[in-house]
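User: Fold both of these, please.

Assistant: Here is the first one.
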Amino acid sequence: MIHTRPQMLHSRPEMNHSHQTAPTQFVEASGIRFAYRRFGKSGGVPLVFNMHFTGTMDHWDPLVTDGLAATREVILFNNAGISSTSGEVPNSVEGMAANAAAFIKAIGLAKVDILGFSLGGFVAQELTLHNPALVRRLVLVGTGPRGGEGMATLTPEAQAVFGKTYANPDDVWLGVFFTASEASQAAGRAFLKRFRLRQQGRDPEVNEKVAPTQIAALGKWGAPRWGAFDYLREITQPALVINGSHDVIIYTANSLILQRNLPNAQLILYPDSNHGSQYQYPALFVADVTRFLDAAAPFQMVGRGAIN
């Protein structure tokens, strides 16, 4: 069943709304009541966003979501146990991916494009691996493979940033997403202003159980193992890998590993940028992702041996 909050009933909310105004809807699947929002230009393949560590629907940058929604339908959701979605957070990426697939199918979608950021990128890979017919194209942002470099635990840089106390709690994201350069920090402060633009119907922050459980899942996913990257060769969908040139949360080297091992992938690194490069360069990010998703053949080669 699909529900909307009574005060926000709309027949086609995706046609009339933006990041700031899209109503929160609910759908039940696998015993979980998933909260989600959908908006943008309907009619094509929807783009489903998968969120980072401890994030909610309201942690996305409206310049990114609205920018992409100008040419396609955008779907944001909270996975199990996150904010306004019921249930418990799984202690494995595989469990999170199974829940994400159940959500997508519950809202009646048979084919989607998937965008995964950080932890959401792990989920996107697992979802695609186990539901290949469901996913058309894949966008992996600030993320890495199973058993990647420095991924068995939070990196020392991440531990330092998350371990600090901040007068303004939102300032943690300046260290997580942006470099120490003056230009990057200025972009970060602009992002924080956009981050709080939505006031009506905003998601509550996650509860205290979320971070420890997600860290446990991160540890299992990131643990070194023999043949760690072999699974990537089974993900044959066109993939766009994007990161900052100096990601200290999930090291930039992991994006190169993804590009080298995914059979059909392109890598873009943005300059002087950290884990949230898409928030530092939102217009460029929207243009790059739009080009990739709209192209008839993203990586077409001219002449003999052409591939899609």
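And the second sequence with its predicted structure:
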Amino acid sequence: MFEVGFTEIVLIFGLALIVLGPQKLPKLASQIGRWVGRARAMARQLREQLDQEVNFEETRPHTPTSVAAPPAAPASPKTSPDSNPDLQAPHERPGQ
């Protein structure tokens, strides 16, 4: 996608030399080198940490987790609409 070849690097170096001058260019190059080194170290640490996490998950023994059954509901007497007049619809009540 974005490739920088040798000629582009030489062109960038030449422009930087003209703009910054020979005194500031070495300092800037060393600072950029430190930044790149830190970024690589951070990327390496992240990669190692992710590998450790993946390996930990793979080596950890998998024990099936049992799902507890819900508590049993208290026993209640069955009522039907026929035996309880309060549960009957108004049009089904006897005497109406």
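DSSP finds one helix and no strands in the chain.
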